[in-house]
Amino acid sequence: MTTIDEMVLIPRPRSTVESGEGAPVADLRVRDHPTPSLPPQGFRITSSAEGVDIDHRDAAGLRYARSLLDQVVDQCPGGRLPGFSIEDSPDIAVRGYVLDISRDRVPTRATLERLVELCALARINQLQLYVEHTFAHPEHRAVWELASPMTPAHLSWLDLHCSHHGIELVVNQNTFGHMERWLGHERYRHRAESPEGWDPVPGMHLPPSVLAPTEDNAAFALELVRHQLDCVRSPQVHIGCDEPFGLGHGVSADDVAARGLGPVYVEHLRRLADPLLADGHRVQVWADVLARHPALAAELPTGIVPVAWCYEAPTADGGLRPLPDTVVDLLARMGVDQAGFSGFGPVVAGLADHDVDFWVAPGTSAWNSLVGRVDNARANLVDAAETARAHGCGGLLVTDWGDNGHHQPPSVSFGPLVYGGAVAWGLDANRDLDLGAVLDRHVFADPSGCISAALASLGTEWGRTGQEAVNASPLAAALFPDQVHLVLGRPDPALVADVVARIEGAIGELARAAPTCSDGEVVVRELTLAARMARHGAWDLLGDAGPPAAVRTEDMAELAEGHLVSWMDRSRPGGLSDSLARLDPSLTRRATAST
């Protein structure tokens, strides 16, 4: 008989006591009992010869208990359950997933269904779609018409679909920074802090991306938020407000010079948040600016929830990651804190010292990587869960960004997504989760184990070139040399040659995979393409020591063609031309014609 400890469960429960034989699986009797004494979302499953009893605090606890019981039943080939008592409840009440749908990729309905399925598997109970310009706001067609946006009907469908899986769909519309897709249109340019853009350092020009902090702009942004709120039932809303690059260098220059950036920022944040609070909403906001002004954050009204984000594993000593002075200076001029590259400790220190109630947001580490940075992702997710538990945070949001063209396929994020949900639910039981086994059984249904093996190998190649990288992989940086990435040092040719060999080994593993999940063929196809992209990046690092130019040219054409096909497997056509142009501009016209 298979014991509970031998089973592949996700998330693994915090408490299990085994006790001989349980009931036969055939005609299994399951009785459920509301039990107010259990913690919120908590449950107890007791298996005996007479059947199974589920004690649960609420509907969520019953849902999670039944899901776990299904996993146990599925792994009892002898037809009889073991006898056991499992008790479980979450470390963190809100465990969310934030998917970027504004950096070119807007997922198809089938892709969204797959992601909701994975969220439910990992007991993630909140989903947010990060929007800059990819919602079909009625009066702003010029901004979204080429983006294949989410429509009100799409969002209402997703809200209902999420609710069937016990997941809350929360609107996430940026309202302050990251508005470049709007400000690039002449109709909206006057709303910019710096309509002509700004220069953080001589020789570096950035286009306008932040709205000027004015009453009129607040009303404009709130209209965008309310268009989406009309489509969902959740009273929560995320208004972004992160990275207001250039704030204080244009319209607000005199005000910032007189009062400081922090007070000007918070005043505008209140213009956005206060009307939503008055309407009964709870308002999430990224905490990167507030973390630098924690005394001001402490004065915010109840109902505004700062969400502190960090996407890098903590340093060994818990201090700041050393960066060149030129990099630190540029980051400072852009308003980016060096602390954000060094783990959650330095990021949340000021908020914690001022008793600010905050949430945390780690990431999947998939963006700017092509094939993932799974070792960094695991360490970052554990760091976030430890931080949340230490400070009593009410929420942890696993973020999945699409910076610079969203070239990584969705399945690169599947492992970090389910691992993040597991450690947010119960850190102690899931810190050392066998993620490969979970992927094999519950995500890809791949008895060969080849997909998980390939992902495990590919997801560590970023750290094996002899270079250091932050928020990116050297392989992606090499493939896209015109993009700005924080990669330090020179590659070691011998190490890079080994990287190429291991990537080719992973491609071979994928060819032997035998997934039976609904999207198995797509997964193999898209991961093989991503691995080939990573290999091409490694070839570029090798320079003259790599394949001849003719081989690389042919390979790049095949990658661009494959990216077009793979994109349409998972994503809507809008944004494809932008993403494809970064690989091979000559194919952009073809991509546009195909859409």
Layout of helices and strands:
Elements: E1 15-24, E2 30-34, E3 43-48, E4 51-56, H1 59-74, E5 80-88, E6 94-100, H2 109-121, E7 126-131, H3 141-144, H4 152-164, E8 168-173, H5 180-183, E9 198-201, E10 204-206, H6 215-229, E11 236-238, H7 253-259, H8 261-278, E12 282-286, H9 294-297, E13 304-309, H10 325-333, H11 344-353, E14 359-361, H12 374-391, E15 395-400, H13 414-425, H14 427-430, H15 435-443, H16 450-458, E16 468-470, H17 474-479, E17 486-488, H18 493-511, H19 520-542, H20 549-570, H21 576-581, H22 588-594
Parallel strand pairs: 2-4, 6-7, 6-15, 7-8, 8-11, 11-12, 12-13, 13-14
Antiparallel strand pairs: 1-5, 3-4, 3-5, 9-10, 16-17
Helix pairs in contact: 2-4, 2-13, 6-8, 7-8, 12-13, 15-16, 16-18, 18-19, 19-20
